[in-house]
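Entry 12.
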Amino acid sequence: MASLKKLPSPITILFIVIIIAAAATWLLPAGEYDTLSYNSGSFTINTVKGDKTVPVTQHTLDSLKILISLDKFKSGDIFKPVAIPGTYHQLKSNKQGFLEVIQAPVKGLYDSSDIIFFLLFIGGFIAIFQRTGAMEEGVAWLSHKMRGQEAWLIIIITFFFAFCGAAEGMAEEGLAFYPILVPLYLVAGYDLLVPVAVIFAGTNIGNMASFSNPFSTVIASNAAGINWTDGIYERLLFFAITTAITIWYIVRYAQKTKKHPETSLVYRFDGAVKSNFPAFDTEDGKKVKLEPRNALQIIIFLGTIGIMIGGFIEGWSMIGATALFIVASVLIAVIARMKEKVFMDTFIEGVKSLVSVTLIVGVARGVTIVLNDGHISGTLLFYSAMMVGKMHAVWFILMMMVMYMVFTLFISSSSGMAVLTMPIFGSLAVIVGVPGKEIVNAYLFGMGIMGLVTPTGIMLPSLNIANVSVKAWLKFVYPLMVILLLVSAAFLVVGVL
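Predicted 3D structure (tokens):
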């Protein structure tokens, strides 16, 4: 495992990919597809010889072999130019050199500015909420109320983490809850794997089923040229099923090891290890209260996420959603009576915590810029289409999920993965006849399954903070991964048929 820790960071990997992309512009012929754009109620075919306006009808789409419903264009679900199948043609080579490689990440940052500011302000919002202590107090209060009914505590808290992962991309933030939940579940008679499963697996399953996660679903859908709400009901159903399966799996293990401690995987692989955190005072006389002020802050936190979801459904821009998090941050700070300097310092620290994520977004977008400026995106798409052109849509979508599982071993950033791959795979899906939402789903499912074990994600920090070995975790989680793989494959197959 030590060698796995020496893997380059996602940004370094993406820089390497930029260099490889630039080298490809020297090796591959330049070429592109004609595209169809929908603007102001009219269709325009964009070609190297010029643009041509065509009727806005389903017949036009059918004649161009574009397998998209006309309603998708009129409703705004498809707002980026779509490659027209069978129109690939070669262009004059535009090789990308040293200067273009250096400029690509900077161009990517400029090109992704709306998403970047949105992500940064979410970081500030989460930091303000965490600073109030409302979430920690809410968990502690719930723990006290559920004493003696710990199985329900697993169910409720796992669902909470899954919801936060699916709604707003909670991942690293879950690390803050180990000091609370590890002692809680140990007192309940469970082993150290249970809090790891509740927090890490919970947030990961949520991200896998993201129905509004701005770090994955929104970015990936935009990059694929579709509206992120396309497929939201399917993802909500997937969220319900996979969360239920995960909760059942955790509760089953927890109840088994509580009744038969010798079956604990931690005990089997790690021996009688000790927790890194002190146990809670379990005396019944100790009261744990949820202050009204903190309860109100929790309501505002959850309400903000709900408003964001509703706003995007109603057509909000990234600017509107970003402003929402500013208002919510100030409101929570006012209720918490947070001083202005503390508010600004905390908010800025939260922004800083997501700078690396935004850099990944920009650098990854730089890969697409190099491919596009070098005029080989169309070439890659053309050869990929030739390779899978006769492949049935079912096999195509399953291959996409497997590819994303492999990619996740090297790039664990969902946002970086989205902007790196979606522009190509999204266009390829149109040619093959697979709905764009299913490509987004294949990306979510593939990353979600492999995210449970990838060393470049937060698996290692999570196991380290809970004092659980990699062996114990892998033994615990691999049957769950198999189940999730089968469920994911079933959803993708149904989605393309």
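Annotation: Residues 1-5 have pLDDT under 50 and may be disordered. The chain is about 70% helix and 5% strand.
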